């Protein structure tokens, strides 16, 4: 019984609930609809909502929990002999001793990684893909795979049964309630308002989800690498070895070179974006005629709408070779993945962002200030420099902070145009790496979820999130306070 | 400006009689001109960068829509094609078709016999020409046992040379095709056996390691599935949230917290959403990696704040008189919103949604985090299949060393930009058509 059938049945029952509820209301009204408290369709909706909401929440809850629960039940239900048999064929001899010593605990003798490996084998077998499983363990794991299949079909049927009986109960109870005096509309509206509240809480849940997942995995990382080493260490080489005796097996997780690289590229980007964005905003709002503005603004919007992956390609295709050739022409040795190329392209990407934010801020300066300045005989540029900009300064600072936060969090341009090597340098012609580049390059590829290397990603993500969050909060505060001042 | 500068030339009516004063005035006007020029330069810089970007993409990408082909006389030897002799295409030896193509090439150049010479000769033909031959034979099963002239794709190097993407006057060591091969190419060209044809593979194939065989169909389907999930999740949730916050929410701590939260969420780096998807959806809930379902869920969370903010603005723009009239007629608060305010705000909400979806369409980083950079050679058939997405395909191809992928990347970007322009144009159309001033 696949879940789609369950959902389909529930939808049919919901429609049925609507029809029955409505019909009951019309019947009890006995031809005089006006005797009902609410319009008949509200009685139908009341029934339908009570059929649908509890059951569908149950289905969603089960969909979310199904995987982990079944996996846990299957692995912990394995006989110790089966676990040992699988371990003999699947894990390196060095780790086997520990498993043997604790085999009486069954699957409890396995480490998390071994457990994941075992689960992958069982899942493949249960899905009928025995070709992906080591032939030596196929027969040992057959009972577990069968157990998994049994549990899956059993729980799916149980879910179907529970949902249908819940729906039937809801149908029955709501039908009993329906009468001329029943305030169906108020009830329906209460439920709908509740749903609206739930929807607006999803934004908070997302933030909580981000914080929880980042903090939780970061804490696991910090048990392996001290916080101080991560925040202040000068060496970043996350390549932990597969074998313990390999060279450089410890890995180094000092993130300072990454922070420095991120700041370097963001600074270059802001050196491009701040003047260009601000000056174009000033020109557009103070000098340009309506016709020019109507042309230029959409053009800037197009620039803002171009995906960052396209800017990244532009950087490696055009800008980086151009900068390298320019450097070579004046005798400079420019890396082909220079921070300069990535930074300039990122700056171009942020220009429309800065210009539209600054435009808003400049337009919020009251006309009376301009008129006063012109009345005193100031030229336009003097008005801009001595009246408008000082008045708009807090807002512009806020806009710049938001732009910096964009630059720090930007991923695709640096992934494509900046380097992978963590260099601690302030030379814009050298290749540096950034926080986002490291997150991407570590995660795309191997996925052993226990190594310090993979977990370091979440610590980097946490830093990224925290820094951008602080920048945003401060910037939004400034911009908002400033807007209120002139409103 | 002319009326201000006029007195300068006409000293008799000027107030500024002293030379020093006139100098100061001149300096101020010069500063004014300079400042204006800075603004023009800034805008010119931004506009020209956009122009250069688009121009480069067109220049490198447009040639990907054509593929150089060579005409070969292929003998579909029944014993080779159909070793079992059943006549059923399912029993064909598909691996043998490349050999047929090579034989046809040798036949066209009978004087080339040595092993190394023949290997050089084979460099003209695509190493996956056999796949095209299979398709040709499947469409015309009658050719088995016959000798037919067939147009087959050339190798990537020849393709680039013939289309002029690689300069053939470069020194031999700097180009993928050597002088002998160039001679072969010229000979075939003089016989009329070389042509450039529309590259339909680009639209009908998925990812491949060979530029001749690579297309965007799989990525496009993956993107469409992802977008369907995104809009189905984000639109109802955001509109509901916006309605609550704008129409129902009491002014209290919780509401304020939600508002601050939404504003901040809008500025969280997209890669962090990818990490959320990885830690929550993949690792905790065990959802399928690389699937459009998870991709769509992550992107839905990403665009949620944008649509909420746009929807709130649209709701706010509906004048209070509408609400008061509805309430005055005895409608409940919810009826007022659902029957009157929301329908009137819908154009604004749709415009905001389309723009947010265009933003989601170009997002790459979060999809990389949840593994949608899978190498998928067939279009996904469901929401749980492994799949790629258009912007991710761009990223994957940009990384490949073969020269042919440069033009493919640009072409894929052109397709992506076409989608974006279409969506934004729709949004602008909506705004113009339904915009209402109260």
TrEMBL record, chain A:
<feature type="transmembrane region" description="Helical">
    <location>
        <begin position="387"/>
        <end position="408"/>
    </location>
</feature>
<keyword id="KW-0812">Transmembrane</keyword>
<feature type="transmembrane region" description="Helical">
    <location>
        <begin position="157"/>
        <end position="174"/>
    </location>
</feature>
<dbReference type="GO" id="GO:0006817">
    <property type="term" value="P:phosphate ion transport"/>
</dbReference>
<dbReference type="InterPro" id="IPR022182">
    <property type="entry name" value="PstC_N"/>
</dbReference>
<feature type="transmembrane region" description="Helical">
    <location>
        <begin position="42"/>
        <end position="65"/>
    </location>
</feature>
<feature type="transmembrane region" description="Helical">
    <location>
        <begin position="6"/>
        <end position="21"/>
    </location>
</feature>
<feature type="transmembrane region" description="Helical">
    <location>
        <begin position="335"/>
        <end position="354"/>
    </location>
</feature>
<comment type="similarity">
    <text>Belongs to the binding-protein-dependent transport system permease family. CysTW subfamily.</text>
</comment>
<keyword id="KW-1003">Cell membrane</keyword>
<keyword id="KW-0472">Membrane</keyword>
<dbReference type="GO" id="GO:0005886">
    <property type="term" value="C:plasma membrane"/>
</dbReference>
<dbReference type="GO" id="GO:0005315">
    <property type="term" value="F:phosphate transmembrane transporter activity"/>
</dbReference>
<dbReference type="Pfam" id="PF12501">
    <property type="entry name" value="DUF3708"/>
</dbReference>
<dbReference type="Pfam" id="PF00528">
    <property type="entry name" value="BPD_transp_1"/>
</dbReference>
<dbReference type="InterPro" id="IPR035906">
    <property type="entry name" value="MetI-like_sf"/>
</dbReference>
<feature type="domain" description="ABC transmembrane type-1">
    <location>
        <begin position="259"/>
        <end position="475"/>
    </location>
</feature>
<feature type="transmembrane region" description="Helical">
    <location>
        <begin position="302"/>
        <end position="323"/>
    </location>
</feature>
<feature type="transmembrane region" description="Helical">
    <location>
        <begin position="194"/>
        <end position="216"/>
    </location>
</feature>
<keyword id="KW-0592">Phosphate transport</keyword>
<dbReference type="InterPro" id="IPR000515">
    <property type="entry name" value="MetI-like"/>
</dbReference>
<keyword id="KW-0997">Cell inner membrane</keyword>
UniProtKB/TrEMBL annotation, chain B:
<keyword id="KW-0472">Membrane</keyword>
<comment type="similarity">
    <text>Belongs to the binding-protein-dependent transport system permease family. CysTW subfamily.</text>
</comment>
<dbReference type="Pfam" id="PF00528">
    <property type="entry name" value="BPD_transp_1"/>
</dbReference>
<feature type="transmembrane region" description="Helical">
    <location>
        <begin position="265"/>
        <end position="287"/>
    </location>
</feature>
<dbReference type="InterPro" id="IPR005672">
    <property type="entry name" value="Phosphate_PstA"/>
</dbReference>
<dbReference type="InterPro" id="IPR035906">
    <property type="entry name" value="MetI-like_sf"/>
</dbReference>
<feature type="transmembrane region" description="Helical">
    <location>
        <begin position="216"/>
        <end position="245"/>
    </location>
</feature>
<keyword id="KW-0813">Transport</keyword>
<dbReference type="InterPro" id="IPR024573">
    <property type="entry name" value="DUF3333"/>
</dbReference>
<dbReference type="InterPro" id="IPR000515">
    <property type="entry name" value="MetI-like"/>
</dbReference>
<dbReference type="GO" id="GO:0005886">
    <property type="term" value="C:plasma membrane"/>
</dbReference>
<keyword id="KW-1133">Transmembrane helix</keyword>
<feature type="transmembrane region" description="Helical">
    <location>
        <begin position="35"/>
        <end position="58"/>
    </location>
</feature>
<keyword id="KW-1003">Cell membrane</keyword>
<dbReference type="GO" id="GO:0035435">
    <property type="term" value="P:phosphate ion transmembrane transport"/>
</dbReference>
<feature type="transmembrane region" description="Helical">
    <location>
        <begin position="341"/>
        <end position="362"/>
    </location>
</feature>
<feature type="domain" description="ABC transmembrane type-1">
    <location>
        <begin position="220"/>
        <end position="427"/>
    </location>
</feature>
<feature type="transmembrane region" description="Helical">
    <location>
        <begin position="408"/>
        <end position="430"/>
    </location>
</feature>
<dbReference type="Pfam" id="PF11812">
    <property type="entry name" value="DUF3333"/>
</dbReference>
<dbReference type="GO" id="GO:0005315">
    <property type="term" value="F:phosphate transmembrane transporter activity"/>
</dbReference>
<feature type="transmembrane region" description="Helical">
    <location>
        <begin position="293"/>
        <end position="315"/>
    </location>
</feature>
<keyword id="KW-0812">Transmembrane</keyword>
């Amino acid at each position: 019984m696949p879940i789609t059938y369950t959902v389909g049945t529930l939808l049919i029952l919901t429609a049925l609930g609507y029809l029955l509820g409505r019909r009951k209301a019309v019947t009890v009204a006995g031809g005089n609809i006006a005797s009902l408290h609410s319009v008949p369709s509200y009685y139908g909706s009341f029934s339908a909502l009570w059929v649908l909401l509890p059951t569908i929440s149950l289905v969603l809850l089960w969909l979310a929990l199904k995987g982990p629960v079944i996996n846990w039940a299957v692995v912990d239900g394995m006989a110790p002999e089966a676990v040992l048999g699988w371990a003999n064929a699947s894990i390196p001899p060095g780790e086997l001793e520990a498993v043997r010593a604790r085999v009486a605990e069954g699957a409890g003798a396995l480490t998390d990684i071994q457990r994941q490996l075992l689960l992958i084998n069982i899942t493949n077998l249960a899905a009928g893909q025995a070709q992906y499983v080591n032939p030596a363990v196929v027969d040992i794991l057959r009972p577990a795979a069968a157990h998994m299949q049994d549990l899956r079909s059993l729980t799916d049927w149980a879910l179907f049964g529970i949902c249908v009986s819940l729906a039937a109960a809801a149908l029955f109870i709501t039908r009993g309630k329906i009468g001329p005096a029943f305030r169906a509309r108020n009830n329906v509206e209460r439920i709908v308002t509740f749903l609206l509240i739930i929807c607006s809480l999803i934004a908070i849940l997302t933030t909580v989800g981000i914080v929880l997942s980042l903090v939780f995995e970061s804490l696991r990382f910090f048990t392996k690498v001290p916080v101080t080493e991560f925040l202040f260490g000068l060496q970043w080489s996350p390549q932990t070895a597969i074998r313990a005796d390999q060279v450089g097996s410890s890995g180094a997780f000092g993130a300072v070179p990454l922070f420095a690289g991120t700041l370097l590229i963001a600074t270059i980007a802001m050196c491009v974006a701040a003047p260009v964005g601000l000056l174009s905003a000033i020109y557009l709002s103070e000098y340009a005629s309506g016709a020019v503005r109507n042309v230029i603004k959409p053009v800037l919007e197009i620039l803002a709408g171009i995906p960052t992956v396209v800017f990244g390609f532009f950087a490696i295709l055009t800008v980086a070779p151009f900068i390298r050739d320019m450097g070579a022409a004046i005798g400079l040795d420019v890396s082909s993945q220079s921070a300069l190329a990535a930074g300039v392209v990122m700056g171009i990407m942020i220009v429309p962002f800065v210009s539209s934010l600054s435009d808003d801020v400049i337009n919020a300066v009251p006309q009376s200030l301009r008129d006063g300045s012109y009345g005193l005989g100031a030229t336009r540029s003097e008005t801009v420099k001595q009246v408008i900009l000082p008045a708009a300064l807090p807002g512009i600072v806020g806009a710049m902070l938001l732009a910096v936060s964009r630059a720090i969090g930007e991923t695709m341009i640096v992934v494509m145009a900046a380097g992978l090597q963590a260099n601690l340098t302030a030379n814009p012609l050298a290749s540096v790496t950034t926080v986002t580049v490291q997150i991407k390059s570590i995660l795309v590829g191997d996925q052993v979820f226990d190594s310090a290397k993979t977990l370091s990603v979440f610590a980097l993500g946490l830093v990224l999130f925290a820094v951008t969050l602080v920048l945003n909060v401060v910037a939004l505060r400034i911009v908002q306070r400033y807007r209120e001042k002139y409103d | 400006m002319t009326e201000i500068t006029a007195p300068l030339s006409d000293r008799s009516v000027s107030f500024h009689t002293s030379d020093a004063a006139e100098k100061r005035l001149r300096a101020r006007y010069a500063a004014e001109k300079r400042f204006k020029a800075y603004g023009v330069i800034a805008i010119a810089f931004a506009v020209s960068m956009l122009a250069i970007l688009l121009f480069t993409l067109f220049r490198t990408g447009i040639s990907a829509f054509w593929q150089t082909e060579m005409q070969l006389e292929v003998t579909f030897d029944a014993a080779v094609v159909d070793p079992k002799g059943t006549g059923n295409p399912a029993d064909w030896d598909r691996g043998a078709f490349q050999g047929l193509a090579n034989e046809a090439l040798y036949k066209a150049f009978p004087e080339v016999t040595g092993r190394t010479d023949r290997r050089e000769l084979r460099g003209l033909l695509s190493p996956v020409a056999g796949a095209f031959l299979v398709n040709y034979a499947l469409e015309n099963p009658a050719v088995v046992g016959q000798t037919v002239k067939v147009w087959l794709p050339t190798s990537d190097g020849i393709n680039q040379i013939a289309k002029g993407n690689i300069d053939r006057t470069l020194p031999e060591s700097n180009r993928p095709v050597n002088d002998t091969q160039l001679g072969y190419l010229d000979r075939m060209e003089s016989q009329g056996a070389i042509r450039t044809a529309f590259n339909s593979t680009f639209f009908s194939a998925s990812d491949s390691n060979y530029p001749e065989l690579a297309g965007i169909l799989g990525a496009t389907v993956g993107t469409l599935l992802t977008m369907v999930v995104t809009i189905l999740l984000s639109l109802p949730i955001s509109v509901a949230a916006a309605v609550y916050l704008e129409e129902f929410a009491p002014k209290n701590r919780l509401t304020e917290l939600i508002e601050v939260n939404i504003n901040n969420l809008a500025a969280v780096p997209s890669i962090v959403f990818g990490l959320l998807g990885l830690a929550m959806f993949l690792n905790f809930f065990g959802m399928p990696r690389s699937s459009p379902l998870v991709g769509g869920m992550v992107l839905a969370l990403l665009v949620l704040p944008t649509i909420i903010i746009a929807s709130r603005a649209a709701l706010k723009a509906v004048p209070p008189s509408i609400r008061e009239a509805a309430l005055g007629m005895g409608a409940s608060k919810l009826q007022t919103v659902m029957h009157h305010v929301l329908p009137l705000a819908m154009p604004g909400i749709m415009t905001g949604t389309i723009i947010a979806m265009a933003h989601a369409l170009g997002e790459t980083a979060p999809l990389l985090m949840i593994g949608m950079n899978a190498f998928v050679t067939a279009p996904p058939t469901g929401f749980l299949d492994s799949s790629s997405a258009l912007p991710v395909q761009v990223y994957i191809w940009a990384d490949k060393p073969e020269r042919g992928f440069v033009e493919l990347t640009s072409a894929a970007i052109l397709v992506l930009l076409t989608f974006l322009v279409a969506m934004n144009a729709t949004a602008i159309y909506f705004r113009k058509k339904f915009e209402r001033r109260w």
